[in-house]
Amino acid sequence: MASSCHKSLPIIVLLLLLAAAAAAAAVTVPVASAAAGNDTTFRPGEELRRFRRIKAHLKRLNKPSLKTIQSPDGDLIDCVQAHLQPAFDHPILKGTKPLEPPERPRGHNPDAMSDDVFQLWRSSGETCPDGTVPIRRTKEEDILRASSVKRFGRKPAVTMRHDSESNGHEHAVGYVVGDQYYGAKASLNVWAPKVMSPSEFSLSQVWVISGSFGTDLNTIEAGWQVSPQLYGDNSPRFFTYWTTDAYQATGCYNLLCSGFIQTNSMIAIGAAISPISTLDGGQFDISLLVWKDPNHGNWWLELGSGTLVGYWPSFLFSHLSEHASMVQFGGEIVNTQPQGQHTATQMGSGHYADEGFGRASYFRNLQVVDWDNSLVPVPNLRVLADHPGCYDIQGGINGVWGNYFYYGGPGRKDDDRCS
Description:
Elements (H helix, E strand, L loop, with lengths): L3 H5 L2 H13 L5 E4 L6 E4 L1 H18 L5 E4 L5 E6 L50 E5 L3 H5 L24 E13 L1 E7 L12 E9 L7 E9 L1 H4 L5 E7 L8 E2 L7 E2 L22 E8 L6 E5 L3 E6 L11 E11 L26 E9 L5 E3 L4 E4 L6 E7 L3 E7 L11
Antiparallel strand pairs: 1-2, 3-4, 4-5, 6-16, 6-19, 7-13, 7-17, 8-9, 8-16, 9-10, 10-11, 12-15, 13-14, 14-15, 17-18, 17-21, 20-21
Helix pairs in contact: 2-3
């Protein structure tokens, strides 16, 4: 969250004040808080240190680019040489380059979706040169929206459980557990759910999970999300995530730390998705495949019609260095209980599962990758909604969609169904 002085003072004036304060003895100056309307305390030494931390972090994240593309939504997409992306700041990866693509799982038939223009930044027809990867530029205001520089790009530390909600996180999911899994695949439609508070989000994703549901939880995640705090708007965006300690100190969204290695020059992780589904109208879905390369052990991500996005190196993980023990598909929101009531943040389309095609969100053609690197239909799919009065789920099987489910909901409304 931005401090009150950033809100009430122009940045040039602020920097002059900080510079003067650094040379003089530390003082406190009362300034009006634009957010709360109350007096607070201006501590120039602390503000200067924070400003320096932000600038240093921006320098680490925003690598030199060969080309920059302006997106219609205001994003700047930097075309960065693949071997200079943030992942290669990791000591183990320094001086190396991205790996060649692995063999796909057997039985994999890519969906017919075209990836040529599925993100807003590509609408002008511009692309990044071969040998580069498109990276959404991080701006100062992005970091200022976070609770701290250290927590920027990370989910709040939570103890994730598949049998109930945790720390304000609510789910409507289908899942399989009890075997060894080496990947997962699904298609899901994309919406723009309303998110009521900057500190809340709404997402739909695939989770590949191992470890206990304690501090040793390992996850790999990919899908779409609306997160005003992370991105500064309410657009659905393609994202990735990983953690090896239940979101505490490891992992991040997208390319905001050393972790995921991107290999694709056409897709910008964290960029807005376009088009999206419309109520009682056209449905736009994306297909995601995550699987473990049986030769090198890395976890690869494919999007749509056979487009490899990149991979998570095996050394990032403890339990997932071997295999997953659970796969989960579905939606998640954060409920901060504004005004002491359940949030009205929507999940998926904002409509309940029983409204069906064209109105509810869905996952279809759910599959997992088995020990033999083969894609097989999800066995014994279970469905669970933490708070079914707010967000529910209904599963089924048919010949066209295979294993599928509808899910989502509006959160709190005036009908008392969600309270």
